[in-house]
Amino acid sequence: MPSPGLFAAHLRFLERRLGCKVVAYNHRPKNRGWGHCEAVACDDGSVHQGSRMVESWKRLFYGNRMLRPSCYACPYTTSNRSSDVTIADFWGIERTRIAAFSDDLGVSLVLANTPKGLDAAKRCDIDARRSSLEEALPGNPMLSRPTSCTQPREPVWEALCSNGYDGMMKRFRFLPTRVRFAGARFKRFLHRL
Questions:
Q1: pTM above threshold 0.85
Q2: CB 159 within 8 A of CB 171
Q3: Cα gap 13→57, rounded to integer Å
Q4: Is the CB of residue 110 less than 8 Å from the CB of residue 75?
Q5: What is the distance, to the nearest Å, from the Cα of residue 36 to the centroid of all Cα atoms in its chain?
Q6: Fewest CB within 10 angstroms: 12, 53, 114, 150, which?
Q7: Strands ordered across the beta sheet of 47-49
């Protein structure tokens, strides 16, 4: 989870670039399926989705270099959980034996961690399929280990402090060039074919 201050800086960045005040931000709207295609609503009634400006937060988020330090050592990212129930997205369901249960809007993963949690899950009136933790782990590694930071995070934070949000975004390519963004969209299109 990135810091709230960083997200506030992102909203100010969008407002400057889009020329309007952001009144709503949806990280994973379902209107384009289960992917991650963020949407921003502005006070002038405009909605922006799928643009390189709006998608820049996703690049920053998935870069794992701007998370809070506690995320890299989270004691709760273990399969031996202290809660009764864990709820997450079932990323990777298409590679499991219950792949047919998947739809384009997303499937939730509900882990019953205790007998009390199992009882609660059984009492829910939901369309459910039984799976296993072993099937869920490949697509959901944070169920068994903390997020890893594969690149140094200090230079990114230093750039944020010295060059501001815009400078940091440009220097570390969280905001792709128009050409790079178009190329990435084309690759996703080809992948779907």
A1: no
A2: yes
A3: 10
A4: no
A5: 7
A6: 150
A7: 22-26, 39-42, 47-49
Amino acid at 179: V
Residue 85, token pair as written in the block? 């129930």
Q: Strand pairing partners for 109?
A: 88
* CA pair distance 37, 16, nearest whole angstrom: 20
The Cα 23–Cα 19 span in angstroms is 13
What confidence tens digit (pLDDT) does each residue in 137-188 have?
A: 999 888 888 988 888 889 999 999 999 999 998 888 887 777 776 777 777 6
The CB density around residue 174, as the number of other CB atoms within 10 Å, is 22
Which DSSP symbol is given to 67?
B
The whole-angstrom separation of Cα 13 and Cα 55 is 12
Residue with tokens 């949690």: 117
Beta bridge partner(s), residue 111: 86
Long-range CB contacts (within 8 A, 24+) of 103-107: 103/34, 104/33, 104/34, 105/30, 105/33, 105/34, 106/28, 106/30, 106/34
Closest listed residue to residue 140, CA positions, set 108, 172, 164, 101: 108
